[in-house]
Amino acid sequence: MAADRTFREERKPSRREFLQTAAVATLAVPLVIPQFVHAAGSDVLMVGLVGCGGRGTGAAGQALRADSQVKLTALADAFSDQLERSLAELQKDDEIAGKIDVPPARRFVGFDAYSQLLESGVDVVLLATPPHFRPRHLKAAVDAGKHVFAEKPVAVDAPGVRSVLATCELARQKGLSVVSGLCLRYSQGFRETVSRIHDGAIGDIVALQANDYRGPIWDKQRRPEWSDMEWQMRNWYYYTWLSGDFNVEQHVHFLDVCAWLAGNRYPRLATGTGGRQVRTGPEFGQIFDHFAVTYEFADGPRLYSTCRQMAGCANDMSVQVLGTRGSAHISERRLAIDAADPSHSWQHRGKDNNFYQTEHDELFAGIRSGKPLNNGEYMAHSTLLAIQGRMSAYTGKTITWEQALDSQQDLTPAAYEWGPLAEPPVAMPGVTQFV
C-alpha cells in the first residue's frame, strides 16, 4: 500500500482553495447579492416549486429568503391537497408572504404538472418530488433554460444517474445553475473540517466509517379510495422505484461526505448485506430497514457504511475518519480532529451556519453574478455510490463501480396512471439478480 497513491496525494487542494469556495453567507455575516438585471429584463427572479411536501415547502421558504428580488409564482405536485397545504404553510410566514404570487391558474396538479410549471414563466425551479422523478424533471428544466435546485438523491437507478450526468453537462454548456440538496457540503463547519483533513491534519486517510442509525420515520395508512399507484405515491418512501430505499434517500448525505473527503473519488467495488427485520408490514412497502456495505477504493483504503431505521436502538449519524497521523469525527453535533501533532488538533466551536439556507444563498448569488454553480458531477456520483451499495445488498453480490454505472435496471413503471400497479417484491440476497 505504501507504493499506492493515497486519498490526500491523489487530490490535495490547499486550505486556501477550500476557503475561497466557502459559503457566501453565514449566520454572522449577511449575504450581499449584487443586483444585476435578469436576462428576461427584470430584476425579479420567478421561482417554481415541483414537489410540495415538507422538504419542498422548506426549500421554497429558503429560496424566498435568499434574494431580495424573488417571487414564488408557480407550484406543481401530483396531489392537489399537498399543493394547497404547502401554499398555506408558506403564506403563514410573514417574512416571505409578500413574495408569494401563486393564483389558481399557476397551481399545477398531476404527473405532467412539472411541464406546465416550466411553461409558466419561471426562471428558477426547485425540484423536491420523490427521487424517482428527478432525472426527468431535471432534464426538462435544463432543456427549458431554467436554473435548478435539485434535492438529493437525484436518481434511484443507473439509467437515472446517466441521465443526470448528461443533463448537468448540458447545464454547464448553457450557463445554468444546478445546486444540489446534499446540504452538508454547504456547512461552514464541514467545509473547514474537510479542508483541514485535505491539508494533512491527520495524514493519509486509511479508513472511513459512515453511520446512519436512526429511528423510524413517517408512513401512510392506505385509504380505500386510493388506487395502487396513489397508495405507492403517497407512501413513496417505502418503494425502491420512488425513493431508492432509505440508504439512497437519506444515508446518501454521509456517503457523499466520504466521497468529498476522498477528493471526489469513488470506490471500485462494494460488498454489502441488508434486510427487513422490524419493518415487515404492508405499510412498509418493499424497502429494507438495515444495510451494511464495505466499499473498497483502488488504492487500498475502505469505506465501511452501515445504516438502520429501528425504534429503541442507539442513534448515530456521523463519519469517522482514520488517518496515519490522527482521526476525525464529523457530524452535525460535533466536528473535531484529534491529530498526533497537537497543533493540528481542532474542534469546531459555536453554532454552524444554516446550511439549508446557504444552499439557496449561493444558488441565487451565482445567478446574480453570472457565475452559475454546477454540483452535477458529485451529486450524481454520490447518488450512484448509494445505489451501488443497495445493488450489492439486494443481490448479495460484489458490485463494481462500472457495473453499477452501466446497469440496465430501470425502475420506471410501465405507465404513470392512477390505477393498478403491482406491489414490487422484497429483494432477497442470493436470489435477486443483478441487472
How is the topology of this model organized?
Layout: H1 7-10, H2 15-20, E1 45-50, H3 54-65, E2 70-77, H4 80-91, E3 107-109, H5 113-118, E4 124-127, H6 134-143, E5 147-150, H7 158-174, E6 178-180, H8 188-198, E7 205-214, H9 228-234, H10 240-243, H11 246-249, H12 252-261, E8 269-275, E9 290-296, E10 302-309, E11 316-323, E12 326-330, E13 335-339, E14 346-347, H13 355-369, H14 376-395, E15 399-400, H15 401-406
Parallel strand pairs: 1-2, 1-4, 2-3, 4-5, 5-6, 7-10
Antiparallel strand pairs: 7-11, 8-9, 8-15, 9-10, 11-12, 12-13, 13-14
Radius of gyration: 21 Å
CATH class of the largest domain: Alpha Beta
Task: Indicate the percent of residues in helices.
Answer: 25-40%
Q: Give the name of the CATH architecture of the largest domain.
A: 2-Layer Sandwich
Overall mean confidence score, pLDDT: 91
Keywords for this structure?
disordered N terminus; 435 residues; Rossmann fold; Dihydrodipicolinate Reductase, domain 2; six-stranded parallel beta sheet; globular; nine-stranded mixed beta sheet; 15 strands; alpha/beta
Concise overview:
With 435 residues, this protein is an alpha/beta fold. Helices cover 33% and strands 19% of the residues. It folds into two domains: 163 residues, Rossmann fold; 189 residues, Dihydrodipicolinate Reductase, domain 2 (2-Layer Sandwich), CATH 3.30.360.
Would you mind describing this structure in some detail?
The chain is an alpha/beta fold and 435 residues long. The chain is built from 15 helices and 15 strands. β12 and β13 (335-339) form a beta hairpin. It is globular and about 60 Å long. It starts with 6 loop residues before the first helix and ends in a 29-residue tail after the last helix. Residues 1-41 have low confidence and may be disordered.
